[in-house]
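Researcher: Next entry in the queue.
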Amino acid sequence: MGTDTNQIGQKGIPVKISEKDFEVFRDYIYNLCGIYFHASKKYFLESRVARRMEATGIKSYTDYYQFVKNRQGGGEELKRLLDEVTTNETCFFRNVPQLTALENKLVPEIVATKGKIGFRKIRIWSAGSSSGEEAYTLAMLLLEKRASLLKDWIIEIVGTDINETVINQAKEGVYNTYSVRNTPEFYRKKYFKEEREGRFVLSQEVKKIVSFSQLNLYEDTKMIFMKSFDFIFCANVLIYFDTASKSKVVQHFYNNLQPYGYFFVGQSESLHGVNDNFKTIHFPGGFAYKK
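Model: Structure for this entry, 291 residues:
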């Protein structure tokens, strides 16, 4: 690894990361979780690493890298570094065309298919779930069908993210005004309690059908256990991967999706050139993928 010969800042940390050190951290993170930082993202990675160096009191990029690599002593620090370099931007009811298609067409279709074999359980995976808004949105939509279409059905929704901090936030189920800004009044009144202005607490009815856990989508041994999902949502996550990483992760999604299931990505994302095993299903205002 390169030596830290850059100008030293007020905190005793080099003002800029060297090209060699940037490449070492970039490659290390890429090999761990598939997230790739292009040269244009150098400042972003530099600022996040520097933040953790300041928190640990380590003054050298080389020393910090060695500390993080030492799994025995730096395991917790590695989690904190990954928390820093992953971006989490979401809200409730984010992609309305997808949700409308799910509610009005795709869930009834899956229910009809599974009903024929007498298996009354619906499973949804929110991958890259951040602080839980997407997973909980899906839960609210399905709860509204519990008295009719999903009567006597088991509803199971799983949210995963590599960032342990946001996973813990999701488990708490407490949100601010920004998170609920797109939530229809009906759902906001029924499933949230506004304890005070700007603090919205989600109801236990919603929380009890959603579980959250930390998961690295790039980790093969963990991904093979994410089986038998009727729907998989992975919005605005694949944009952080290069083509090779995308192909690997998307193949895991393909393997873990039921033959009749649906896979959703973000509105600006596509599987073109990534995986040819899916076919595109169009609906008003959006699309999904199917095996």
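Model: The chain has eleven helices and ten strands.
Researcher: Noted, moving on.
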